Amino acid sequence: MFSVLKKLTWFFKEHKKRYMIAISLLIVASFLEVLPPRLLGIVIDDVHQGRLTEDMLANYILLFFGLMVAIYLITYVWMRQLFGGAFIIERTLRSKYMTHLMKMTPTFYEKNKTGDLMAKATNDLKAISLTTGFGVLTLVDATVFLIIILFMMGFLVSWKLTLAAFLPLPIMAWLMKKYGKIIHERFMNAQNAFGDLNDQVLESISGVRVIRAFVKENDDQSRFNSITQNVLDKNIQVAKIDALFEPTIKILVGMSYMIGLGYGAFLVFRNEITLGQLVSFNIYLGMLIWPMFAFGELMNVMQRGNASMDRLNQTFDYEEDVQSELNAYSDFLPETIEIRNLSFQYPSANDQALKNVSVAIPKGFNVGVVGKTGSGKTTLFKQLLREYPIEKNRLLISNIPIEQITLSELKQWIGYVPQDQFLFSKTIRENILFGRPNADEHALQRVMDQASITADIETFAHGMETMVGEKGVSLSGGQKQRIAIARALIKKPEIMLLDDALSAVDAKTESTIVKNIRQERAGKTTFIAAHRMSAVRHADLILVMDEGNVTEAGTHEQLMNQQGWYSEQYTKQQLEKGTEETKEVHTS
């Protein structure tokens, strides 16, 4: 049950002073809280025996008042320290969690659902925070406070009466252990179900346009209802056990009350204890309700925290698939890029996505990468980005194997525009400046012109301050692509990767953007993957890929002379373009 505290030892050591103050003051407050019942018993005995005077009564009242003030001040301090620690660990773990997620490669996200990762960042972190705050409180109250009350009852009232009143305790301890084991298992299932629900909601929101287009709203709603019902059922299973804690404790404490009252009255009649002691004893029995309840809550909170910590550790224990080597190279600029018999297979695939690819690319080359869908163009770019582990000495930059270059250095060199452009739910300005936040207005305007997005932005009511919506939902596909290109250009990367980044723009705009990029990036290396041959026609080197192999390589003129796949596709596309232009002339 307490294994979660062991797993959080690092945090308690880091904030040792805070928790020492909190626990020490909590124990002091516990001592002070048991004094008023004892004083009340003494007052009752004084009244019963006729010894109470006005001066004694005034002193008792002042003492009671002093204890109340002291308990109030001490409680304020320990609560601030203890529950402040709970907020700190939530923030610490959330930051650690996000940092860990940022280091993960696509392999990790293939194995973990987004909804489950979100559930860990919300519900599970809350459960751990509760453990370090309320859990520590219940631990102290269920042990130290309980022992203090037992001492007051056993040594200052009657050990016989105390022993009799505590006969139901072993039953409670057994039941709490049984409940705790069940709630741990059920809480794990409930959290997993909540993760599935998160994943479903994310998928439905992201694909709402497709769902509506196919008139599948009812089907999606039915699927959502089924998952929410599963979450409800799992949480009801947790609640059923959770609901047993308090009634069980109240019944057993009620049994202690009955034993205490009956046997206590018997001891008073035999003059073994006084009436005041019996009153004090019954007040202590009433005070025992919270430590007993705290014991039950302790089991509950610790089991939930332990389950959540286990789920979170599953993520933390996942090591990065790609890491910088010790003594890796940094602080140099990339020159040549050389690929030597590079092969690659995705972890979840059966066939190789790249097969013995070899190519040498001098600095400053514009490289076009073309081929059928699934031919390996994107996979080649992912090797340059080091998204997956790579075979040693197969990809070299400036004659240094890429695995010997620090990841931070490599990522600083590269500007990347993926196939599925992602825009943040911020303004157009903020999205473009994401690549270089300190860029001035002139640089911003320049990359907008180069990406041919300036005219579009001017049509928006708020211009550069237009909110693009979640993932750029308020923009067209072409606008999103051009903003993504501007974001990559403003970074002024040494190596730029455009992965089918012009597919949503027309041929004229594509030609303008490609021309601007060639002029702006003279002397720097640029890769352009495209399905339209016109996008790569002026490249210094064109690679034709098919089923992971480089089947053709050369300039446009060389490939046209080879009369291979490139020549065939280029001729075909030019004929289609001419046909479309003819149709437009006749239509107009």
UniProtKB/TrEMBL annotation:
UniProt keyword terms in alphabetical order: ATP-binding, Cell membrane, Membrane, Nucleotide-binding, Transmembrane, Transmembrane helix, Transport
Gene Ontology CC, one term: plasma membrane
Principal location: membrane
InterPro entries referenced in this protein's UniProt entry, alphabetically: AAA+_ATPase (IPR003593), ABC1_TM_dom (IPR011527), ABC1_TM_sf (IPR036640), ABC_transporter-like_ATP-bd (IPR003439), ABC_transporter-like_CS (IPR017871), P-loop_NTPase (IPR027417), Type_1_exporter (IPR039421)
SMART domains, per the entry: AAA
CDD domains: ABC_6TM_TmrB_like
Name of this chain's protein: Multidrug ABC transporter permease/ATP-binding protein
Organism: Salipaludibacillus keqinensis
